[in-house]
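ok new one. same drill as before - structure tokens go in, u give me an amino acid for every spot. 203 of them this time. try not to just spam alanines like last time pls lmao
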């Protein structure tokens, strides 16, 4: 069961990102401040949910959150500054868009670049531990999936409607056949010289 908050004095915002491991498209991040009384039986790490469950939760989170915001950093910027810095930048931009400034940040993962003078705590697998981080993971994932489904209409051969830009076998086969697109991350290994079937299929 997810914990409703990390501490009970300061206003917390949970932060998470989606799309770090993709070969194409932006990285998205979300920041969410939930009411301390917020509960929902479906809420969990977005990777543990079905697409339908995430879409249901997105509506609930957007309706009931004290404040939420989503931001993205495009593949061109990712190539310029690297994916880790781009993820932090997307989180910072999401935080800047909140209508209420939080007093503490809960960050999914083990690293973060401080945002102003707001204290933060990094929590490994935090999206499966704290409600606000789980909510941020749901928003980041659903917004990014929606974006990639839109790009799929322009480049249907890459299967982005299904793989969302992750390095599946179909995606890599399409790169081999058609080359890359303006949305591919060219600093990533789009076509590794040696990549096992197991590594491809785990996506």
């Amino acid at each position: 069961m997810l914990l409703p908050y990390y501490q009970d004095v300061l206003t917390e915002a949970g932060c998470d990102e989606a799309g770090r491991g993709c070969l194409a498209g932006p990285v998205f991040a979300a920041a969410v401040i939930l009411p301390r009384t917020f509960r929902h039986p479906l809420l969990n790490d977005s990777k543990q949910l079905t697409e339908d469950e995430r879409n249901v939760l997105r509506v609930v989170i957007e309706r009931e959150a004290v404040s939420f915001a989503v931001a993205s950093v495009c593949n061109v910027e990712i190539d310029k500054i690297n994916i880790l810095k781009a993820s932090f930048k997307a989180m910072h931009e999401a935080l800047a868009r909140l209508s209420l400034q939080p007093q503490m940040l809960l960050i999914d993962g083990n690293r973060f670049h401080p945002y102003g003078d707001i204290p933060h705590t990094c929590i490994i697998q935090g999206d499966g531990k704290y409600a606000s981080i789980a909510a941020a993971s749901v928003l980041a994932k659903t917004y990014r999936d929606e974006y990639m489904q839109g790009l799929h209409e322009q480049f249907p051969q890459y299967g982005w409607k299904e793989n969302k830009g992750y390095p599946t076998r179909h995606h890599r086969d399409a790169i081999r056949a058609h080359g890359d697109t303006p949305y591919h991350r060219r600093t990533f290994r789009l076509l590794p010289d040696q990549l096992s079937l197991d590594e491809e299929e785990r996506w």
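The two ends are 27 Å apart (CA to CA). and btw Residues 194-203 have pLDDT under 50 and may be disordered.
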